[in-house]
């Protein structure tokens, strides 16, 4: 064979296989099972390349030999096996063992047809001067290959809702290109175009998979960072904002809404220490979680809810009138009539700092005033609220 022609036939496939091997070998993060599947496909592509080149050598002889018949039979068999591997890699998690065995039947039939060339002419034969003659079943290899590839397309379409849309589109487009290349092979009678397209399509899908895996790692990292950030800002027991996060959020609201009425509510649970000391921290924690749940149902979504520790809870109400504030605090007190599982009743005493629109105060000042109001409510007998209006001070 002419060296220039040999280079033209093999260059794309050889370079592609080398690249694919390097990618797989150096990839330490890829799932082992998936990597082995790619290795299998790469190995089959390499075998087909070897068989084809050996057959080209025997085709140059002046007469047919048993070696050429064997190489042709192996070549006829290997590509359907390659297509079956693509199908298996695509749907192995969705297919039962019984169906997997049924899918092997076309593969076995094609192998029987291919190797029947040793004693029949139904697949192919050779003339005395070593010319290839296709028999009545000479296209069995192409038919079985296309059959498996069409199953891949059907599977990708049926599972488009479960898989990422782009993955299904990639599978369909690459398999379609392989089928087109095989049709061209049958028309122009040259087999190397299909093999080159298969190798390049494998690399393309590998690169796509790596891109998707990288994106998933990035998204997982972002989810982890979001979770850690949320954990650093929330109270682990109740899910409310912790002390520092509440103060930061409240300061942001105050600085951006200076002309809007604000109210900072501070309450703790009467007799909570007695429940904690008598029945233990587990009972106390259950009461704290109940209190947080009641807060979430009592206040609006835009209100800030926080727990500073122990049984101390804070709420920043945004855009509320003085009249509505009293009703809201009375509702809070009623909602905080909680019973422990042991039957102990817990109530709430509430202090509130009301900041009228146009007046200024920082978070620490509001907390101080609300704390004074809470102390007054307890002095008056607990289970009630006291509101103190913030005077007009500079920050």
UniProtKB/TrEMBL annotation:
Superkingdom, taxonomy of origin: Bacteria
The GGDEF domain covers 260-390
Ranges in coiled-coil conformation: none
Tell me where the transmembrane regions lie.
Answer: 6-26, 38-63, 69-89, 101-119, 139-157, 169-186, 192-209
Which CDD domains is this protein grouped with? Answer: GGDEF (cd01949)
Signal sequence segment: none
InterPro entries on file: Diguanylate_Cyclase (IPR050469), GGDEF_dom (IPR000160), Nucleotide_cyclase (IPR029787), Rev_trsase/Diguanyl_cyclase (IPR043128)
What keywords sit in the KW lines?
Answer: Membrane, Transmembrane, Transmembrane helix
**Protein name, per record:** GGDEF domain-containing protein
- Give the species: Suilimivivens aceti
